[in-house]
C-alpha cells in the first residue's frame, strides 16, 4: 500500500518548498473557515495556480474548511466548498460531521476528509464518519497504535507524525475562547497552553510550561504506523517557515526511501525543535511535556568551556544563532563571534558558564542546503520542415502550426529549437528531446517563442485539466423543528447525593469503579458521562456499569453508536460543537435523543436553534480542556492521589483541575477560572456541578447565594 507524505502549506513559499522536497500532498487554508486563520492562506486565483502546479507534479492539494460554521454562514460555506473543488482541490477537510453529510448530499463528487478537530479516535467514531460521507479520517493525536490498526481497516487514516501538539484533545479546547476571547474552533487560538502555570502539588509549585507538549516526531516508528495501515503521514506546521517544511519532508522521505536519516534529522532540529521531541501518545506517554523550555531550542552542537568559547565540531559562521540552556532551562541567546581551534567564540548579553549547553537555532547554511527544484520530465518531438506545418508533440499530445517558409538564409537549426523549448516559462518541466527534425525552414524567433508558449500552455491543460463545474444545486437549510420550548434541566456531577433534576449525568471519578449505590442517589433519569477520548479498553471498562443507567451523555461522536449498540438513550454533549441548523438536524436524524448546543454561541444564537430536547450550558463550571495524559509525568509511586488541584497562571487566575481515572491511567480536566451563570429562555438548562454541587440553584438552602465570581461566558458575544 502506498503511503503519502502530507505537508503543510501556510503560504505559497511553503507550498513550493513542500512540493520540491518530495511531498505527495499538501494541505492549506482559504481566507475563511480555516483552523489557521493567522496563516497567509490562499485566495481563489492563488489556489487555482497552485493546484495546477501541484497536479503537474502528481501532488494532491487538500483544502481545510475545518472551523465551526454558524447558521448565518451556511450559504457562504457551501459556496467555499464549491469554489475550492472547482479550483482543483483533491479533498475538503471539515470538522462538522453533519455539515459534511449535507455537503456530500449536495455535491456527491466532492471528497471529504474528517478533520482531527472532530476527535475521531476509535472504531465507532470512524464508522460513524464513513456513514456521513467521509472517505478519510484525520485521527486524534491521542489515538493509540492498537486503535489506529483497527480504524485503518474501516476507512483511510491520516496520522500526525511531526510538528506541534495540542495539549487538549482536539476540538474540545475552549481555554483560548473563555479565558482569552479567541476561539480555537474558529482558528484563532492564542495558545494560552504555551504560557507558564503553577500547580498546587509538591514539586510543581514553581511556574513552568505545565501544559506545553514537546513537538511531535515519531521518527523511525513511522514504520509501525505503516504496518498498521496508515494511509497518510501528516506534518503539522502551517504557521512555520518554508525551511521547516522542507526539512520535515526531507526527513520522512529519507525514512521511507532509505536516505541519510541522521543528516535529515539534524536539519529538522535546526529548522524547528520544541522540547527535543516526543514520539507522542500513540506510542505511550514518554517525555511528552516540555516544562522547562517553550520555543525553538535547535540542535545541541557544543558546550561552553571558558569565557565565551564553545567546544564544538560544528563549523559555525557569521549569522548563526544559538540558544543557551543551563540545567535544562533557557538562560539566553548568543551569536557567532569568531572561529577558534576546536570550536568557536560566542557573543551573548547573558554571562555564559562552563558546561552550558549550546544549541544551534539559526543555521545560515540551512536554506541553501534545503533548496531544491522538482521537475516533471516531458518527452518532446519537434518537426520544423520547409513547406510543412510545424509540429510539436509530447506522448499522445500533439499540436500543429502554420506551414513553414523556405529559409533564404540562416535556416532553423536543431540547436535553436532545443534551446527554445528548454525554456519552460516557469513551468515545472524538464524537456527531454526524443526527435528533433528541421530542414531549411525559416521562422522568426518571436514566432518560435509564441509556438513554445502556446504548446506548453495547452500541454498544461492536457496534463492538469481544469475541474468540471459542480452541478447547480438549490441548497435548503431547514431550521430545527420548533415543537415547543424545552423546560427540563440536566445536571452533570460526580456526586448525586441531594441532587434532583430531569436528567442526572454521572461523571465517575474512576470508570473502573462505578458504584451502584452512588448512581442510585439523587432523583432523575440517569445518564453516564463518557469523555471525548475513548479506546476499546475504555469501552470494555464501562460495560458492567451500563445497566445502572438509562442513557449515555458523551462529548465525542463515538458515543452515539455506542449508546445505540447497548440500547441506551443518547445525549449529545457540548463537545459535539453544534453551531448550526444543519448540524442540529443531522444529530437528531442520526438518533440523538437529547443534545446540547455549543457553549461558544450567544443566547440569541442558541435560542434560534432551540426546540424540544435541546439544551445549553448555563450554570456551573465550564470545562475548557480534556487532557488525555498525566500532567505529573506518570510518577505513580510518588503521586499524592488527589482528585482536585488548582492551575494558576502568571496573572493569578486560578483554573480548577480535576483528575479522574480511565483505562490506561489518569486523565485531567481543566475548568475555566470563572464559573458560568446565565438566565436562559428557549433551551433546556444544562448545569455542570462537577466541581460545585453545593451551588445547585434548585437546592434551596440558607447558604444558596449568587454564584461568586460567575460571568455570562459567551451569552452576549459569540467568539465563533
Task: Throw out a few tags for this protein.
18 helices, eight-stranded parallel β-barrel, eight-stranded parallel beta barrel, TIM Barrel, 720 residues, 23% helix, alpha/beta, 35 strands, 4 domains, 27% strand, globular
Strand content: 25-35%
Mean pLDDT: 93
Number of strands: 35
Architecture (CATH level 2) name of the largest domain: Alpha-Beta Barrel
Number of helices: 18
Overall tally of structural domains: 4
Span from first to last CA? Answer: 40 Å
**Major sheet: size, sense and barrel closure?**
8 strands, parallel, barrel
Give the radius of gyration.
Answer: 30 Å
Share of helical residues:
10-25%
**How would you name the CATH homologous superfamily of the largest domain?**
Aldolase class I
Task: Kindly report the spatial arrangement of strands forming the biggest sheet.
Answer: 1-2-3-4-5-6-7-10
| Secondary structural class | alpha/beta
CATH fold annotation of the largest domain: TIM Barrel
Question: How would you characterize this protein structure?
Answer:
This protein is α/β, with parallel strands linked by helices. It has 4 domains: 4-165 and 214-281, Aldolase class I (TIM Barrel); 299-370; 376-463, no CATH class; 489-622 and 674-695, TIM Barrel (Alpha-Beta Barrel), CATH 3.20.20. Helix content is 23%, strand content 27%. The protein contains 18 helices and 35 strands. The strands form 6 sheets. Strands 1-2-3-4-5-6-7-10 form an 8-stranded parallel beta barrel, surrounded by 6 helices. Helix 4 packs across helix 17 and helix 9 packs antiparallel against helix 10 (261-271). The chain is globular and about 105 Å long. The two termini are 40 Å apart.
Amino acid at each position: 500500500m502506498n503511503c503519502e507524505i502530507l505537508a503543510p502549506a501556510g503560504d505559497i513559499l511553503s507550498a513550493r518548498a513542500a512540493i520540491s522536497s518530495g511531498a505527495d500532498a499538501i494541505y492549506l487554508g482559504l481566507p475563511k473557515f480555516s483552523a489557521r486563520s493567522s496563516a497567509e492562506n490562499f485566495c481563489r486565483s492563488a489556489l487555482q495556480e497552485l493546484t495546477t502546479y501541484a497536479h503537474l507534479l502528481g501532488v494532491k492539494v487538500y483544502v481545510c474548511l475545518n472551523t465551526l460554521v454558524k447558521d448565518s454562514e451556511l450559504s457562504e460555506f457551501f459556496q467555499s466548498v464549491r469554489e475550492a473543488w472547482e479550483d482543483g482541490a483533491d479533498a475538503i477537510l471539515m470538522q462538522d460531521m453533519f455539515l459534511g453529510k449535507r455537503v456530500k448530499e449536495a455535491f456527491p463528487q466532492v471528497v471529504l476528509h474528517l478533520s482531527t478537530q472532530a476527535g475521531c479516535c476509535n472504531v465507532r467514531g470512524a464508522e460513524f464518519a464513513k456513514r456521513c460521507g467521509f472517505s478519510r479520517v484525520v485521527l486524534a493525536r491521542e489515538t493509540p497504535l492498537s486503535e489506529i490498526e483497527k480504524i485503518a481497516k474501516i476507512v483511510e487514516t491520516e496520522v500526525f507524525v511531526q510538528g506541534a501538539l495540542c495539549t487538549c484533545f482536539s476540538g474540545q479546547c475552549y481555554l483560548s475562547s473563555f479565558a482569552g476571547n479567541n476561539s480555537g474552533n474558529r482558528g484563532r487560538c492564542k495558545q494560552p497552553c504555551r504560557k507558564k502555570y503553577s500547580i498546587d502539588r509538591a514539586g510543581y509549585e514553581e511556574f513552568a510550561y505545565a501544559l506545553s507538549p514537546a513537538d511531535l516526531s515519531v521518527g523511525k516508528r513511522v514504520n509501525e504506523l505503516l504496518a498498521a495501515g496508515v494511509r497518510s503521514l501528516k506534518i503539522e506546521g502551517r504557521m512555520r517557515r518554508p525551511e521547516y517544511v522542507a526539512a520535515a519532508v526531507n526527513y520522512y522521505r529519507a525514512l521511507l526511501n532509505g536516505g541519510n536519516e541522521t543528516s535529515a534529522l539534524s536539519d529538522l532540529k535546526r529548522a524547528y525543535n520544541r522540547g527535543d521531541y516526543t514520539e507522542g501518545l500513540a506510542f505511550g506517554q514518554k517525555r511528552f511535556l516540555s516544562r522547562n523550555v517553550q520555543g525553538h531550542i535547535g540542535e545541541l552542537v557544543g558546550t561552553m568551556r571558558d569565557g565565551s568559547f564553545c567546544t564544538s565540531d560544528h563549523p559555525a559562521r557569521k549569522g548563526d544563532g544559538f540558544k543557551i540552556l543551563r540545567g535544562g532551562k533557557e538562560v539566553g541567546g548568543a551569536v557567532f563571534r569568531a572561529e577558534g581551534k576546536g570550536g568557536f567564540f560566542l557573543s551573548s548579553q547573558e554571562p555564559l558558564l562552563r558546561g552550558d549547553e549550546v544549541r544551534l537555532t539559526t543555521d545560515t547554511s540551512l536554506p541553501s542546503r534545503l533548496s531544491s527544484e522538482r521537475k516533471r520530465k516531458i518527452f518532446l518531438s519537434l518537426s520544423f520542415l520547409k513547406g510543412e506545418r510545424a509540429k510539436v508533440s509530447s506522448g499522445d499530445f500533439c499540436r500543429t502550426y502554420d506551414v513553414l517558409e523556405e529559409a533564404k538564409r540562416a535556416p532553423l537549426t536543431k540547436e535553436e529549437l532545443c534551446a527554445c523549448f528548454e525554456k519552460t516559462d516557469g513551468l515545472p518541466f524538464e524537456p527531454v528531446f526524443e526527435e528533433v527534425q528541421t530542414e531549411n525552414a525559416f521562422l522568426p524567433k518571436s514566432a518560435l517563442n509564441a509556438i513554445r508558449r502556446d504548446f506548453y500552455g495547452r500541454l498544461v491543460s492536457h496534463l492538469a485539466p481544469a475541474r468540471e463545474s459542480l452541478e447547480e444545486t438549490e441548497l435548503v437549510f431547514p431550521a430545527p423543528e420548533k415543537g415547543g420550548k424545552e423546560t427540563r434541566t440536566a445536571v452533570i456531577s460526580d456526586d448525586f447525593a441531594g441532587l434532583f433534576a430531569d436528567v442526572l449525568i454521572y461523571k465517575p471519578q474512576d470508570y473502573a469503579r462505578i458504584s451502584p449505590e452512588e448512581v442510585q442517589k439523587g432523583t432523575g433519569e440517569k445518564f453516564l458521562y463518557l469523555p471525548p477520548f475513548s479506546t476499546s479498553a475504555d469501552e470494555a471498562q464501562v460495560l458492567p456499569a451500563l445497566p445502572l443507567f438509562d442513557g449515555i451523555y458523551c462529548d465525542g461522536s463515538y458515543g452515539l453508536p455506542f449508546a445505540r449498540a447497548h440500547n441506551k438513550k443518547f445525549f449529545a454533549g457540548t463537545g459535539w460543537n453544534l453551531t448550526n441548523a444543519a448540524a442540529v438536524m443531522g444529530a437528531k436524524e442520526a438518533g440523538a435523543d437529547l443534545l446540547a448546543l455549543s457553549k461558544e454561541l450567544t443566547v440569541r444564537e442558541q435560542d434560534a436553534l432551540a426546540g424540544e430536547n435541546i439544551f445549553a450550558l448555563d450554570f456551573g463550571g465550564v470545562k475548557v480542556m480534556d487532557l488525555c495524559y498525566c500532567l505529573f509525568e506518570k510518577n505513580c509511586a510518588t503521586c499524592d492521589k488527589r482528585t482536585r488541584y488548582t492551575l494558576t497562571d502568571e496573572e493569578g487566575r486560578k483554573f480548577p483541575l480535576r483528575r479522574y481515572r480511565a483505562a490506561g491511567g489518569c486523565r485531567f480536566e481543566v475548568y475555566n477560572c470563572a464559573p458560568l451563570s446565565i438566565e436562559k429562555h428557549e433551551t433546556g438548562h444544562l448545569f455542570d456541578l462537577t466541581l460545585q454541587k453545593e451551588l445547585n440553584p434548585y437546592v434551596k438552602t440558607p447558604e444558596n447565594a449568587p454564584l461568586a465570581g460567575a460571568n455570562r461566558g459567551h451569552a452576549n458575544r459569540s467568539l465563533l
